[in-house]
Amino acid sequence: MNTEQPLTADTFLAGLWRENPVFVTVLGMCPTLAVSNSVLNALAMGLATTFVLIGSGALVSLLRNVIPRAVRIACYIAIIATFVTVVDYLIQAISLRLYQALGAFIQLIVVNCIILGRAEAYASRHPPLASMINAAGNGLGFTLALLCLGTVRELLGSGSLLGIPLLGPQFAPWVIMLLPPGGFFVLGGWLLLFNWRQRKQGVKIPVAEVHRHGA
Hints:
With 215 residues, the protein is mainly α. The protein has one domain (10-202). Helix content is 63%, strand content 2%. It is built from 9 helices and 2 strands. The protein has helices at residues 9-16, 29-34, 39-62, 72-94, 96-102, 113-121, 128-158, 180-200, 207-212, and strands at 160-161, 164-165. Helix 4 (72-94) crosses helix 5 and helix 7 packs across helix 8 (180-200). The two termini are 19 Å apart. The model is unreliable at 206-215 (pLDDT under 50).
């Protein structure tokens, strides 16, 4: 089914704020909680996911009239896995230490529901340019969310940002912030703040709209 819509600024901006993958649709929680214990890890995972989103969105869009509907999910996963393999080798080549810090969560980008949701709900119904712009918005929205968590967790957990000490030697690190429970606490705080901000602005997201764009 072709549901092409005009290309607007909202094509890109929706994923950044109004339909942010983490703070609104609450998707991709595994990598969000697992790798957001530092700004560097958060940034690397966010950019890797953005690369896969843009690449897979473009290819799915190009092949949308060729892929049989009965096997579309399997084809989408194969396309996503191809781009994940590319980014996996790129990170290994750039920094083995970073690759080891991210662990299996790089490979698990394949099953990240943000990416599959974009492929199914948007790229399969829109032309390549619109699909890439929409994917970029969602990818950067995901990156922004990871950075929000990573900044708080690294600052409170080690007193530094990007390895640079900021709070001085007298600061006692909150070690829990570098552990999984800390991720839940910080995510909960950001969700409260984000929802409060949305309510203050009177922004309402219809359930049908969220599902249509990739819940």
